[in-house]
Write a structure and sequence with these properties.
By secondary structure, this protein is mainly α. It is built from 20 helices and 6 strands.
């Protein structure tokens, strides 16, 4: 599902194609070409059950006080029926439909109509028109990087409304949370279906399309690599970054406002969740240019996995901690709160510094200092699809000398901090760290499979130099 992505390998230069002296299978770039029975079964199960999982979590909070076991136990014992649960579920409303349509339209407007100006006055921020990575067809797409600007404008309007304008209640998102879920599903399925049809009938680039012959796999994982409308509206960048991630902090603010309305105060746990998740969101937009080099943009095609995932899965399951705290306000002890804050900041530090070390190494071709020393690297070579021989370097200094994906480890520490802020009374807020552990471990293995095919024996030298994946000395 939608995720926090990192650049795919710790390397100085990255192009296509791959193993030493021989071309990689086509499936090494982007998603698979051939679909085995296990992949097909996984796809069908996700298509069937992912929407149900989202509904189950939101319904559990709305009707069962955030207990994950209570709905199943009540159904098993006969105390309730599925029809009863569904009858108590708020349906789609015109208010929610208008609100959601206005929200998405506003984000589209900010995305395509307002060129970035933040890079002109914010030191070290990189925005404006930027180039992405080379696609499998050899295309280098250009992007208008203005996510930070969109986030700032959106939140300035939010706070102006709360303190000056009074156009809508700060609790409006929470008050329409389930009706908005149906709107998000409609958009998620609509954009995924449109991307599928577009890939078959009028793709942006026919050479960047992949067809497996299996409808379900094509629908979920996508056909077209970079579906676009016009010159600037890129489906992948828009739906990965906007509207879901811009909304993340607004959703948390609405949850905090609801807690204030219900209990007369905002707990320190709610403040911690808002603060730590806002740090990640702002970091995402500050480094949006860097995001163009991540797995999501460089390797994934655009299908239901990204389209529906970014519309529904991300805003509804990544915000479970704030939602839980509306129903179960938790006031942490000063020591507990300080420990959660330190863990969250530590996770962010490892995540950001690890990625900075890799980016610095890549930009300077190793002519830099990491932890005060000249970095060490494994010299590698590979052959691209056009038969050209290339040389590259794999970093083995700094955090990248401790583990091959220590940036993922930092991400997981931050995810754990969000959950620990909610105390230990219920499992529901801990779904996020469990999901991120599975997601990032799978991403780690997937990335290493691609790198092994790309670098061949040189990758074996690299893994011998850095034997740990995520946890030094353990895994």
């Amino acid at each position: 599902m939608a995720s926090r992505s990192q650049p795919s390998t710790p390397k100085a230069k990255s192009l296509d194609g791959i193993a030493n002296g021989k071309t990689s299978s086509e499936g090494q770039w982007g998603r698979a070409w051939e679909v085995d029975w296990f992949s097909l079964a996984s796809v069908v199960l996700l298509l069937l059950f992912a929407p149900f999982i989202v509904y189950y979590f939101i319904m559990a909070c709305d009707q069962f006080d955030c207990s994950l076991s209570a709905p199943a136990l009540d159904l098993a014992s006969g105390r309730t029926r599925l029809a009863d649960i569904w009858a108590r579920t708020p349906g789609l409303t015109w208010e929610a439909a208008r609100l959601y349509a206005l929200w998405v339209s506003f984000q589209v407007l900010l995305y395509i109509a307002l060129p970035d100006i933040c890079h002109k006055f914010l030191p070290s921020y990189v925005g404006g028109v930027q180039e992405g990575a080379v696609t499998p067809a050899g295309v280098v797409n250009k992007y208008e990087i203005n996510g930070l600007q969109a986030w700032l404008i959106t939140h300035l309007l939010w706070f102006a409304n709360c303190h000056l304008l009074g156009w809508f209640r700060p609790t409006i998102i929470f008050d329409n949370w389930i009706p908005l879920l149906w709107c998000a599903n409609i958009l998620g399925y609509a954009v995924s279906t449109f991307a599928m049809v577009k890939g078959y009938l009028f793709p942006s680039n026919t050479r960047d399309c992949k067809f497996t012959g299996n409808f379900f796999y094509n629908y979920m994982m996508g056909v077209e690599f970079n579906p676009r409308i016009g010159k600037w509206f890129d489906f992948k960048l828009f739906f990965n970054g906007r509207p879901g991630i811009v909304a993340w902090t607004l959703i948390n603010l609405s949850f905090a406002a609801k807690q204030q309305e219900l209990y007369g105060h905002i707990t320190n746990s709610m403040i911690l969740v808002n603060l730590l998740q806002a740090i990640y969101v702002v970091d995402f937009f500050w480094n949006e240019t860097w995001y163009l080099k991540t797995i999501d943009i460089c390797h994934d095609h655009f299908g239901w996995y990204l389209g529906w995932g970014d519309c529904v899965w991300l805003p509804y399951l990544y915000t479970l901690q704030g939602l839980y705290l509306v129903y179960h306000p938790v006031q942490l002890s000063p020591l507990h709160a300080a420990a959660v804050l330190l863990l969250g900041l530590l996770g962010y530090y490892v995540f950001r510094v690890a990625n900075h070390q890799k980016d610095l190494f890549r930009r300077t071709d190793g002519r830099c200092l990491i932890w005060g020393r000249r970095p060490r690297a494994i010299e590698c070579s590979y052959t691209s699809a056009d038969g050209q021989r290339h040389r590259s370097k794999l970093l083995v200094s700094g955090f990248w000398g401790l583990a091959r994906h220590l940036n993922y480890t930092g991400d997981l520490l931050g995810s754990l901090a969000y959950c620990l802020a909610c105390g230990g009374a219920h499992l529901l807020p801990y779904f996020y760290v469990l999901y991120m552990t599975v997601l990032l471990t799978h991403r780690c293995l997937r990335d290493e499979h691609r790198c092994a095919a790309k670098y061949g024996r040189d990758w074996a030298r690299y893994t011998a130099a850095v034997p740990s994946r995520l946890l030094p000395g353990l895994f």
